[in-house]
Amino acid sequence: MYYFIERMTEEDIEQVQAIERASFSTLWSANTYRHELRSPSTSRYIVARASPIPPPPRAERQPVRRGLLASLLPALFGQQPSLRDVPIVGYGGVWLSVDEGHITTIAVAPEYRGRGIGELLLNGLIDQALDLHADVLTLEVRVSNVVAQQLYLKYGFRPAGTRPRYYTDNGEDALIMWTDPIRTPAYQEKLRHLRERLFARLREEAEAPEPVRNGVRPGMQ
Ligand SMILES: CC(C)(COP(=O)(O)OP(=O)(O)OC[C@H]1O[C@@H](n2cnc3c(N)ncnc32)[C@H](O)[C@@H]1OP(=O)(O)O)[C@@H](O)C(=O)NCCC(=O)NCCS
Questions:
Q1: Domain that residue 36 falls in
Q2: Residue burial 158-172, b: 16+ Cβ < 10 Å; e: rest
């Protein structure tokens, strides 16, 4: 599978909500997503898609939708040709407050976890935060969510206190995490190094045959 990131659009909300339902116990309404998507000067949302064929380069995607993919996708998916037909397997968002980029959400569909997609999304969110001129990143995460914390630690987020009983569903505390300034040569170098490793991993996964489970290949149902 080839995984790639795109800006989320309102057409994507339904698929994003399906992943959200499988990932979180408190959910956003479609209107909340619409509001966020209509505020691009402070909010950026992205989706990760999984394609069995290599996606066209980002700059070419718009025209290619009517060209090469127009001829390939009907054969693969049996319907209208569009990148919109390539399933969404993860999403995330970042919100700018003054010079702070707040990671508001990030999730990967359960059957696609552990393949580097969460990391790909976090990289996409860091790019969006840089584009919004954020100088530093922050987020809240459940104290029990060790998997997500590991991902954030890898990207230089560090614990900086808790918000007691932050989560209304079970009264769990939130761990607050912050990065160092993200525009410094030191952070940029760390990012470059992590990205090289991630892209090598994703290339390897793209070239490996998909495992067959119960006679069905993941992502093709
Ligand atoms: C957190 C989440 C987005 C990670 O996505 P993912 O695609 O499974 O993660 P990746 O495969 O990209 O792994 C990236 C890093 O995350 C951490 N990680 C992933 N799975 C892990 C596991 N099972 N145990 C410990 N750390 C893990 C590791 O640091 C990993 O880097 P490594 O491969 O070098 O060890 C995903 O687990 C998820 O959607 N969880 C539910 C929603 C959620 O909790 N979101 C966070 C809210 S704050």
A1: 2-207
A2: eeeeeeeebbeeeeb
